[in-house]
Amino acid sequence: MEQLQTLAYLENIRRLRMYQTNISLGFQPYPATCFNPPYYHHNRHQAAQKINNEPKFDFHKLAESATKDKPTKRKLRPKKEYICRFCQRHFTKSYNLMIHERTHTDERPYKCDICQKAFRRQDHLRDHKYIHAPEKPFKCTICDKGFCQARTLSVHMATHEKAAKKQKTQS
């Protein structure tokens, strides 16, 4: 039984050292309510029973403490701003600024190798290439017509819906 008390004592020292190391490194500790308090009992049998039966970490309390609103001490980093040199429009990402500035300069670096049509964005060139493909990726379930983009298929489907409504009103 004395060995159990010694082990519990050593475990508490290990936890304290780990806690102090984490604090010195800048880590935020778990809320104290997540850990069950150490048990010190005069009755050796009672101490051994508590140590063996109780979990060392209460995950339920961790979840509760994580969902509570608490003030943060962390300083928020200011968002970078990228400003268009032509119209002073603001962007949070440099890529979006670069694409936007191409509207002012009319730069179109992505060319179709089949028809030589140029695009400002690579994804627009990718979508365009479906025009030259023999099989279109989006097909109408009613008339089997193929489309390069989902949005043009949805516009097409609306024409079928209008025609169906027109037939119902005439009948």
Mind explaining what this structure looks like?
This protein is mainly alpha-helical. It folds into 2 domains: 2-59, no CATH class; 108-170, Classic Zinc Finger (Double Stranded RNA Binding Domain, 2-Layer Sandwich), CATH 3.30.160. It is built from 6 helices and 6 strands; from the N terminus they run αααββαββαββα. The strands form 3 sheets. It has a two-stranded antiparallel sheet with strand order 1-2. A two-stranded antiparallel sheet has the order 3-4. Strands 5-6 form a two-stranded antiparallel sheet. A hairpin with a 6-residue loop joins strand 3 and strand 4. The longest helix is centred in the first third of the chain and has 24 residues, at 2-25. The N and C termini lie far apart (93 Å). Mean pLDDT is 76; it is low at 32-50.
Layout: helices, strands, pairs:
Elements (H helix, E strand, L loop, with lengths): L1 H24 L18 H10 L5 H9 L14 E2 L6 E2 L2 H12 L4 E2 L6 E2 L2 H8 L8 E2 L6 E2 L2 H21 L1
Antiparallel strand pairs: 1-2, 3-4, 5-6
Helix pairs in contact: 1-2
Task: Name the features.
171 residues; mainly alpha; Double Stranded RNA Binding Domain; 2 domains; two-stranded antiparallel ribbon; 6 strands; 49% helix; elongated; C2H2-ZF_Transcription_Reg; Oidioi.mRNA.OKI2018_I69.chr1.g2927.t1.cds; zinc
